[in-house]
Amino acid sequence: MALDALDLIAKPGKIRGIVGPDGAGKTTLLRVIAGLMHATGGEVEVLGLPMPLNAEKVRERISYMPQKFGLYEDLTVIENLNLYADLRNCLGEERKRIFGELLAFTDLEAFQSRRAGALSGGMKQKLGLACSLIARPKLLLLDEPSVGVDPISRRELWKMVKELSGDGMAVIWSTAYLDEAEQCDQVTLLNEGKTLYSGDPSELTEKVSERTFLLRGFDGQRRNRLTELLSLDGVKDGVIEGDAIRILTDSPAATADLQAFLDRQQQQLIPVTARFEDAFMDLLGGGPKGPSRLADKIEFKPSEPGTTTVEAVHLTKQFGDFKATDDVSFTIQPGEVFGLLGPNGAGKSTTFKMMCGLLTPTHGEALVKGVSLKLASGEARQKIGYMAQKFSLYGALTVEENLKFFSGVYGLHGSVQREQVQMMTETFELGPFLRKGAETLPLGYKQRLALACAVMHRPDILFLDEPTSGVDPQTRREFWSHINGLVAKGVTIMVTTHFMDEAEYCDRIGLVYRGSLIALDTPANLKAGVASDVLKNPTMEQAFIELIQRNEQGVAV
Predict the structure, then answer these.
(1) Phi, psi for 498 (deg, rounded to 5)
(2) Could you please report the per-residue DSSP string of 151-209?
(3) Which residues on neighbouring strands pair with residue 311, listed in sequence order?
(4) At what angle do helices 77-87 and 121-132 cross, to 10 degrees?
(5) How far apart are CA 106 and CA 127, in angstroms?
(6) Are strands 384-387 and 461-465 parallel, antiparallel or unpaired?
(7) Average pLDDT, the chain
(8) What is the pLDDT of residue 519?
(9) Confidence label for 488 from pLDDT (cuts 50, 70 and 90)
(10) Which 8-state DSSP code applies to residue 59?
(11) DSSP per residue over 486-536, as a string?
(12) Which of 24, 306, 330, 514 has its CA 20 to 30 A from that of 14?
């Protein structure tokens, strides 16, 4: 039952947000509204016309931007726009006028001759939005348009859509970013096809306003302390937030019990303003409880304290005249979570791929436990587990075949291989999907499978390239529970992410912009460094944007 007796109204000039876990029915809902799928039951009316009888008429007046990049990557920006204008019968002077407006609106004027496949994630989404707007639609359907997009591009995208709704366009926006949902005029929260909530996001947030708190003072033990707190009755959700832990309790009575428990440890719950994400997690029953099952089941060999696990030495990567990465150096210590952040197109992915041995540096080198990836890549790679940004397993193989293939690649055979495959199947609850094609899995389960394949050989170092891109907050919490558990066992983690709340889990962050490393410090220090009378208590996202802007202005960071 993808959708179950769902009611929804979208009004002109308003943005309706659609949120929910993976597989909740968000994409199905948008496709039914667009006339790409037929409802099994119930009635659908779009722009006053019953569907699907009037699907052709409706499609002339609406636009749908799908979750996956739906344009032609081998065509340039202007060629994609021309194709969509042809399909929409937009010709002559009208086409020139609309193209001029859209290129200026999306800031793509200087990139007209660039192939769509060579654009950064943010630019791709802007191009997708531009193509969707050629027909001047009355209704705009956006299916997670900001997945994989950096905070600056997300803000720009959001500003564009706000302007469109201000001009009277109705917008339905499904999203995995709950700070976006918080800005919508109305929000619908789905789970298993049913509506859990529909209305003003602030009204739902208000329901948890007296149950959200911060805890401080852990002296570097944030991860262990979070695991302990999540095991307590009455603690519904918890996340790391800088040098503190953010807690959501079950009820006022649970809050009192928790405070009594903390009194014995001389700690105090500090009330904090509730967010829509707190209300979302509350309505869905909270996050994962207790320690990571993955970390509990696998034994790792931690590196010696005081050694350097990963090192970038003057890394430079040049493509023709363009330097994607320019003289980047840093070290990562054993058992550390190191975050590599940066806007789309800043050189973050290029740096990351060189650290994994997937790209050869033009100059400099990447070292894993003192071994150069350039000189002894085979030896170094056996110490590495890698999870790619895009689902990189074999879609045509079943889940079980992928597990067997990747365990074999990493040298596991016979009874050891069978035991590891069985362990991963149980740990990530993959049993019902074992004989299904990997490509058919819901996104959250694809990411589980990818992580399972990356850790089966018990690597010393784990490289995670946007491991939670596009997945819901519950699944993201599950992933970070595993990451925290692995770090506690001594595994070293290098991670890239566009979720700024995830960056808070990192011990240190390297911020890459225009190919250079412009900042390197702890999340708390980076935020403190941008604090001002205007930004008294900056979030990680605000710190990210401020540091980029300072660099553009030539201000030292």
Answers:
(1) -105, 0
(2) HHHHHHHHHHHHHHHHTT-EEEEE-S-HHHHTTSSEEEEEETTEEEEEE-HHHHHHTTT
(3) 331, 367
(4) 20
(5) 7
(6) parallel
(7) 88
(8) 94
(9) confident
(10) H
(11) HHHTT-EEEEE-S-HHHHTT-SEEEEEETTEEEEEE-HHHHHHHH--SSSS
(12) 24
Q: In angstroms, what is the C-alpha Rg of the chain? A: 24
| Rounded CA separation 193/27 (Å) | 11
Structure tokens at 398: 């079943």
Q: Is 442 helix (H, G, I), strand (E, B) or coil?
A: coil
Q: Under DSSP, is residue 216 helix (H, G, I), strand (E, B) or coil? A: strand
Distance CA 247, CA 266 (A): 17
Within 8 A by CB and 6+ apart from 122, the residues are 149, 150, 152, 153, 154, 156, 157, 343, 344, 345
Sheet holding 212-216, edge to edge: 235-241, 244-249, 212-216, 270-271
Query: Regarding beta strands 310-319 and 270-271, do their DSSP bridges make them parallel or antiparallel, or are they unpaired?
Result: unpaired
For residue 317, what is the enclosing H or E element?
strand 310-319
The answer to whether 280 and 189 have CB atoms below 8 angstroms apart is: yes
> What's the CA gap between 108 and 113, in Å, rounded?
10
* Half-sphere exposure at residue 285, Cβ-oriented, CA atoms within 13 angstroms: 5
